[in-house]
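Narrative of accomplishments. A recurring question from our advisory board has been how the design workflow behaves on a single, concrete structure rather than in aggregate. To address it, we present the structure tokens for one chain from the evaluation set, followed by the sequence designed for it. No filtering or post-editing was applied between the two.
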């Protein structure tokens, strides 16, 4: 029976966060599903391996390459933010958009976005349209026509070129997907903390 009392503010915020998590997971789940359907239809394979190259190194080596590349991109991006006004504006705008973000949720978002985007842009698109076109489409997908955020597409373009080259060189998505997850996980958490946002608790 209605009591006329509003829900506690904390409960409202928790419900909004849970809704955001569901939408993020749904969005990237759809991307990954489209990638699987497209690659199965076009090449009768899953969007995991390059069209022409077999894996050139053991899985542990490809994983290490991905971690190293991801950490290198994090260092470069943070140095750019620290030393340029454009980078500082971008970090500030992204931090405001992200809002509060626990470390677990940051890594959950990183895992979903890294796997979903790599499956689509590298696993499905790149074998069909080539490295250059897939990279340009990746950069365009990260373009936001808003002051302070336009430069995000430039970083995405450079990162996408690296991810695409790793996909071609190693033969599958393990290295680029790992690098993508590392970059997103570390930078999402850093951006959220820079805006003073840190959700109470670490639950997903």
């Amino acid at each position: 029976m209605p009591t006329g009392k509003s829900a506690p503010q904390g409960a409202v915020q928790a419900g909004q966060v849970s809704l955001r998590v569901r939408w993020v997971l749904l969005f990237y789940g759809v991307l990954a599903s489209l990638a699987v359907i497209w690659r199965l239809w076009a090449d009768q394979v899953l969007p995991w391996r390059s069209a022409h190259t077999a894996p050139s190194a053991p899985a542990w080596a490809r994983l290490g390459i991905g971690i190293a590349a991801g950490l290198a991109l994090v260092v470069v991006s943070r140095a750019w933010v620290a030393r340029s006004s454009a980078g500082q504006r971008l970090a500030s705008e992204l931090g405001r958009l992200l809002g509060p973000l626990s470390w677990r949720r940051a890594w959950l978002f990183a895992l979903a976005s890294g796997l979903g985007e790599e499956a689509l842009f590298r696993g499905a698109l790149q074998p069909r349209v080539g490295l250059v076109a897939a990279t340009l489409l990746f950069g365009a997908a990260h373009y936001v026509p808003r002051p302070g955020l336009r430069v995000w597409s430039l970083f995405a373009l450079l990162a996408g070129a690296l991810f695409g080259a790793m996909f071609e060189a190693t033969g599958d998505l393990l290295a680029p997907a790992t690098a993508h997850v590392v970059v997103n996980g570390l930078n999402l958490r850093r951006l959220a903390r820079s805006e003073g946002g840190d959700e109470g608790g670490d639950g997903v």
